[in-house]
Amino acid sequence: MAVTIDHSGKAALVTGAGAGIGREIARWFARAGASVAVNDIRDDNATAVVREIEAAGGIAAALVADCRDEAQVEALVAATVERFGSLDIAVNNVGMLPAGRSVSAFVDMDGAYWRDVLDQNLMAAVSCARSEARTMVARGGGGVILFVSSGETTRPSPYNAAYAAAKAAINHLVTTLAVELGPSGIRVNAMAPGTTLTETVRTAFTDEHVAAIVASTPLRRAVEHDELARLAVFLSSELARCITGQLILADAGAFLSRTRPANLSPDEGSELR
Ligand SMILES: NC(=O)c1ccc[n+]([C@@H]2O[C@H](COP(=O)([O-])OP(=O)(O)OC[C@H]3O[C@@H](n4cnc5c(N)ncnc54)[C@H](O)[C@@H]3O)[C@@H](O)[C@H]2O)c1
User: Fold this and answer.
1) Is 96 near ligand 1, meaning CB less than 6 Å away?
2) Is residue 160 part of a domain?
């Protein structure tokens, strides 16, 4: 008997789903049969993703909201329930550096920089989760909340302190919420992508930088968008029904490469033994 994942009859909300990883997650939930609320701050992108899903026979609605704004998040979650009759799965995917901000030396990150990056990567997810959890509990419990963290929390790089700290807070939030919401039948997990070549990353990184990252992963490659989408679909499914409070790394093994310097011969490594 084949093992399949079927999200038919479920309503899934994916934030920041107009591009990149979120777009692929939305497409895969639709492929798995869910009705998908495609959130983005950009109407054009959200609408384009909905058109793609509908052209492939799926069900989706574009819901524009800035997830940094609590009132807009409340309205977003309410609109999902109004449109599809429930909220079963929520993927809090909004993140990356906000418009106008780039990586920076820690000593040059002022309070405004920290607040901007924390708003985008921590507070947006906190607002979404609060609204989603309240809605799931009010509707009798049950559901899945999935956060998108980052491999940056397991293998930090310089010049990204605020982003990494925000994502690390998500990692801990997952454990607290799993304990607090578990009795209501709500599972809470996070996935931590390694470098995934979305448009945003392609624009921000040079080819040399991407090549260096790829060379440092055991699998010698970046992560594909659909690999994260498949993981999201799995973690939200009955197949993962006992998994909660976990951070799942999907990083082509990147976090392992800090354990031992590359090309260290047994002789060179003798002082480490
Ligand atoms: N791409 C990577 O290598 C990588 C690695 C680790 C973690 N991540 C995480 O994965 C998630 C997605 O990353 P991505 O590379 O696909 O990003 P992306 O920039 O390609 O896409 C993000 C989408 O979110 C939308 N968006 C931005 N701010 C928003 C807001 N405040 N409210 C609603 N929508 C908003 C954008 O319009 C865009 O469509 C982020 O949380 C990011 O931190 C990405």
Assistant:
1) yes
2) yes
Burial class (CB in 10 A: 0-12, 13-18, 19+), 113: middle
Structural domain boundaries, residue 218: 11-251
Q: Residue with the nearest Cα to atom 26 of ligand 1?
A: 16
pTM score:
0.95
Q: What is the DSSP letter of 154?
A: T
202 ligand 1 Cβ < 6 A: no
**pLDDT tens-digit readout, 108-144:** 999 999 999 999 999 999 999 999 999 999 999 999 9
- Quick check: is 163 catalytic? yes
Q: Report the alpha-carbon distance of residue 214 to residue 22 in Å, rounded.
A: 22
Residue 268 covered by a domain: no
Task: Calculate how far, in angstroms, residue 219's C-alpha sits from the geometric centre of ligand 1.
Answer: 24
| Active-site annotation holder among 91, 163, 189, 232 | 163
CATH number for position 33: 3.40.50.720
